[in-house]
Known about the structure:
By secondary structure, the protein is mainly beta. It has 1 helix and 11 strands.
Amino acid sequence: MPWANALMAAPSWRLGSTPAVPGAPPPVDSRAVRLPRLSWPLSPVPVVTKYFDAPETPYGAGHRGVDLAAVPGQEVLAADAGVVVFAGVVAGRPVMSVDHDGGLRTTYEPVQPSVAVGEQVYRGQVLGTVLAGHPGCAVAACLHWGVRRGDEYIDPLALTVEDGEYRLKPWGGGP
């Protein structure tokens, strides 16, 4: 196949990337940036009532966060240190967003805020309280918790570390 020879003859840098300049540092793949570990926004560690479901397209269907079982009035905690960048209503629901180092933004809803936009918050600080009325919540109240880096939604559970014991499970993947 003629195209196979073209691929084999391609330079050592990745196709579609900028070739290395002698003496310059290698390009950084933004997807390879190590993301911080986040703490749970509710205490004690809550039950997940609905899991993350990444959309196939930017405007496609999906669930861009997780829903956590809560009780109305339960304190919502900052998942990491950051700055409150939004506290208001979106589509009729009270939402809060906090920007963190590494380009992450966490979002919490429905929340009655106790902090103001522009306020610096620390990990574990009370941001507000959970309100009842999250659509599709099967318990008294649910906190929808989302994480985004730029335009990419990330599963919050992939960034969360629970205190306690960890066990490795067998993996049936490749060699």
